Write a sequence for this structure.
């Protein structure tokens, strides 16, 4: 197992390199870099993308070379544009910039944001608690509810309980997360009905003056609605996956043998079936966590006014803040690859019969 983990860790390097190469190459063809962002702001505060629709044909001949590259740089001297390029490092060839970036990343130096005057590491650490709160609690709640429900559905397969719970979770799965989040706000956050939960933020304004128990209660009070909105669609997949895994195991011969020996139903289910049936569910844990952590965070964070990694990534992409874009891409890519390795380790912990060394051989 140790040799397998070592090989997987070594594969992280070329995988991350491939991710960075592809994304860095794509960025070279995307219009509207950070220099254009500054030019757009200085030329009237508009968005950089306004210049791509046309206009700019009436360009001063003195700065024609600059305008060929930067649409809208009518009144700015070429020297100023060149200074911006040097400041951002765009006076160097793309290959040199890419190799320099990789060298810095190897030292865990992710640079500084172009527009926020703060290092990418500090920026990610500042936003991380919000996204971790959403991802961790949503994943835990989904597993805590879905696994017992899936087991119960497998035991009661074909019954009325199985039928109406299947309908309920399919309806929940069909509701878009953002729509459910808005519904929660309208109903429980002072929209049109009850003012039970806060409308925005992760903590109250008087957080520092609260006691330890007060801080814990305030935290869960704020995180309740965002977590529910993030979790609602995860129930269906996990519940049905658990149910189908248990149904497959229940039909096997060793289960009939255990029952024939007089073991109780609970002993059969949780002493024999559970370990085998949970393999596929445990293997899906990283995907569920990463999915909640990344995919749904932007919409949920925006609706509930939470300043997390989803909004950070979106704002960095719009502003073309390349250090933040590539720094977070590297960090999140590394996280997802390591979590994938951890899922294999969890396989072995749950069922020691699994041997990745023999499987690869």
């Amino acid at each position: 197992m140790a040799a397998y983990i070592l090989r997987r860790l070594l594969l992280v390097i070329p995988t991350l390199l491939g991710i960075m190469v592809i994304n860095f190459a794509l960025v070279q063809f995307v219009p509207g870099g950070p220099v254009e962002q500054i030019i757009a702001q200085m030329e009237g505060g508009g968005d950089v993308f306004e210049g791509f629709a046309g206009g700019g044909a009436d360009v001063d001949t003195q700065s024609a070379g600059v305008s060929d590259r930067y649409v809208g740089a009518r009144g700015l001297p070429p020297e100023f544009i060149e200074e911006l390029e040097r400041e951002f490092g765009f006076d160097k060839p793309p290959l040199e910039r890419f190799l320099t970036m990789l060298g810095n990343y190897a030292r865990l130096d992710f640079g500084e944001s172009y527009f926020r005057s703060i290092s990418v590491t500090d920026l990610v650490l500042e936003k991380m608690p919000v996204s971790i709160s959403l991802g961790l609690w949503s994943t835990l709640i989904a597993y805590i509810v879905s696994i017992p429900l899936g087991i119960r559905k497998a035991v009661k397969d074909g019954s009325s309980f199985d039928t109406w719970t299947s309908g309920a979770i399919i309806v929940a799965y069909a509701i878009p997360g953002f729509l459910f989040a808005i519904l929660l706000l309208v109903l429980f956050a002072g929209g049109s009905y009850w003012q039970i939960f806060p409308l925005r933020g992760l903590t109250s304004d008087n957080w520092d003056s609260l006691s330890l128990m007060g801080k814990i209660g305030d935290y869960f009070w704020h995180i309740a609605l965002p977590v529910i909105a993030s979790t609602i669609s995860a129930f269906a997949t996990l519940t049905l996956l658990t149910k189908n895994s248990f149904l497959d195991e229940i039909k096997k011969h060793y289960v009939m043998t255990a029952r024939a020996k007089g073991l109780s139903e609970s002993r059969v289910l949780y002493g024999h079936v559970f370990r085998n049936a949970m393999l596929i569910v445990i293997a899906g844990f990283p995907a569920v966590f990463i999915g909640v952590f990344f995919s749904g965070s932007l919409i949920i964070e925006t609706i509930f006014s939470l300043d997390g990694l989803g909004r950070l990534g979106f704002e960095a992409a719009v502003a073309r803040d390349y250090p933040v874009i590539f720094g977070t891409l590297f960090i999140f890519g590394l996280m997802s690859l390591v979590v994938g390795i951890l899922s294999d380790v969890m396989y072995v912990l749950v069922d020691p019969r699994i041997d990745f060394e023999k499987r690869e051989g």
In short: The chain has two domains: 2-92, 121-360. DSSP finds 17 helices and no strands in the chain. The radius of gyration is 26 Å.
